[in-house]
Amino acid sequence: MCSVCSAVDQHEPIQRIASWLHDARSVVILTGAGISAESGLATFRDPEEGLWAKYDPMELATIAAFNRDPELVTRWYHWRFTKARDVEPNPGHHALACLEQRLATRDRSMTVVTQNVDGLHQRAGSKRVVEIHGTILRWRCTKTGAEKPLDEVSFDVFPIPSEHGGLMRPCVVWFGEMLPEQALAETFDALEHCDLFLSVGTSATVHPAASFIEVARAVGAKTVEINRDPTPISEIVDCAAHGPSGEILPQIMNELGQLDDS
Ligand code: OAD
Predict the structure, then answer these.
(1) Do both 260 and 211 map to the same domain?
(2) Could you write out the DSSP letters of every residue in 158-175?
(3) Which among 254, 190, 249, 261 has a CA at the least distance from the CA of 224?
(4) Do 145 and 201 have their domain in common?
(5) Does the beta carbon of 140 sit less than 6 angstroms from any atom of ligand 1?
(6) Structure confidence by residue, pLDDT tens digits, 139-184
(7) What is the pTM of this model?
(8) Which positions ≥6 away from 149 have C-beta within 8 Å?
(9) Ligand 1 center from residue 101 Cα (angstroms)
(10) Which atom of ligand 1 lies closest to the CA of 33?
């Protein structure tokens, strides 16, 4: 096991991760808010700036908060939605999309399991993306569950009434709600068949995502962390590369390109 590597010496872990990707047959990549940080989207645990700085995202992303103050929570999600829509995928997202394509040409599989609701993996070109916390890019009625095309949701009044007598809410998973069954089933299927698991840009603190690494370890997969900072899983992964994912992931792709060509 390599030690948690210092910011100045990332070459060895990057080479090691690239060689594991070169040999892997089935890869699962768990992503969190950190991978979108370099696109300009705030993570959950870094302090926010501006309008919403005084609110704790962990307290707004709950069913209890929505029931108590639907106007505040809807305004916050509308703001997050406009930010997600207005930013671009960064080199970290693009590297993962490129990795998926590269593995596919060699008949290898890759699944991105993301806790993010911003749609940036798909916009970068990733095809197999499981959104375990839902998406902010779709909204539905609280009463009927009916989804409405975004261009038909009016963001002029908060909370947003639906024509069925309920309110419109984003199709995200809030604390206090169940994760989507289908997404969980796809995740566990991918985990149970993987031989390499990467945790990228997540604090690895929110379950069940935080325990996916245990499933991967139980089936004998190698485990990797790519994160700006150490996390609770840094000590148990087989290799950790610490730095911005928008820099580390493209470097891994460069190394992988050399291995694939050799
Ligand atoms: P967090 O905000 O908890 O953690 C973000 C992680 O990304 C931290 O470990 C940072 O150190 C790291 N990070 C920040 N910038 C980075 C960069 N440029 N490159 C690499 N890593 C970077 O976000 P999540 O782990 O995604 O759930 O949070 C998990 C869940 O908790 C979220 O999906 C959300 C939240 O409450 C719900 O809303 C249900």
Answers:
(1) yes
(2) SS-B-TTSSBEEEEEPPB
(3) 249
(4) no
(5) no
(6) 999 999 999 888 889 999 999 999 999 999 999 999 999 999 999 9
(7) 0.95
(8) none
(9) 26
(10) 26
Assess whether the C-beta atom of 203 lies below 6 angstroms from ligand 1: yes
* pLDDT in the model for residue 246: 98
Residues 112 and 129 grouped into a single domain: yes
115 lines ligand 1 (CB under 6 A): yes
pLDDT for residue 5: 43
Ramachandran category for residue 185: left, alpha or beta (phi over 0 → left; psi -120 to 50 → alpha):
alpha
Same domain, yes or no, for 69 and 30? no
- Counting as low any pLDDT under 50, the low residues of the chain are 1-8
The pLDDT of residue 21 is: 98
Task: Give the chain's domain count.
Answer: 2
Q: What is the DSSP string of 66-84?
A: HHH-HHHHHHHHHHHHHHH
Same domain, 36 and 97: yes
**Same-domain check for residues 36 and 166:** no
